Amino acid sequence: MFSVEQLQAFITTVETGSFSAAARRLNKVQSVVSQHVINLEVDCNILLFDRSGRYPALTEAGEKLLPHAQAVIDQHQRLKNSALSLTDNTPKEITIALDEGISFKLISGIISNLQNEFPNITLEFLSASSPDIIDMLKNEKALTGIVFSELTIPSYLDFECIGSIKFDLYVAKSHPLANQVCKNIDSLRLHRQLLIRSRNTQSSSFQLKLSPNVWYADNYFLLLELALQGNGWCLLPNHIANESVESGQLVKLPLEFEEMGWQANVDVVQHQRHSNLAVFKVLRLLLRNLL
């Protein structure tokens, strides 16, 4: 019968590319990891890796088994997290991380309701890009994140959508693009793009690189300042751009295709280890349909 250790050794070898790298990640000696994989192959009665090259390569059977093995490990982790939460040990301090592009004013109204129900909890608020927040949740530096939806959410996170925020393309009033109607997306490629990416150089799934000339920032307020100085065009949440638009410093890009903006979904994400606790369930309920 398959064991969790066998499946973990198999999956980690695939993810890291070698038995030695898998052993380092799992904090085991290489021989133990290799033996777990061999035992799994014996139980399956088929080779899962082709070992003829320098690095092990998945066989066709290994490719078929991989998603099922991953599903079992994910469910095993969820079971462990559920068991740990049975005593409902509400943490004394909760860190909520918020993407800079999401207005804190939108959620500030619910904070007093959460505090009234859990008066002994200390709250901490952090601001970062969505990919950085997902990294924080992985390391449990934050326990709840409010982020723009990503195409891929790690299996250790639970999430639900709480609404959306409108984005549009903007440039400074002084920028050459402000005085012409862009007939297609190729017009934008001729000018510098200002783009959000995380501190570990990951970009959000809807922040697409279109121009060969790009400057980066890790938050939307820096992006706004770069745009106001005429350094390029960018995609901004409307609520961040509005004040500068009203003052005449910033304009929505004149486009023949009028709607090249984006309705970005906003998710609340929580680590499975904590998402079943009462305080996090209440927080999700308060955030639900907020936008």
TrEMBL record:
Family: Belongs to the LysR transcriptional regulatory family.
A Gene Ontology molecular function term of the record: DNA-binding transcription factor activity
InterPro entries, alphabetized: LysR_HTH_N, LysR_subst-bd, WH-like_DNA-bd_sf, WH_DNA-bd_sf
Protein name: Transcription regulator, LysR family
Keyword Transcription regulation in record: yes
Pfam families linked to this entry: HTH_1, LysR_substrate
Native source species: Colwellia psychrerythraea (strain 34H / ATCC BAA-681) (Vibrio psychroerythus)
Keywords of this entry: DNA-binding, Transcription, Transcription regulation
Domain HTH lysR-type: 2-59
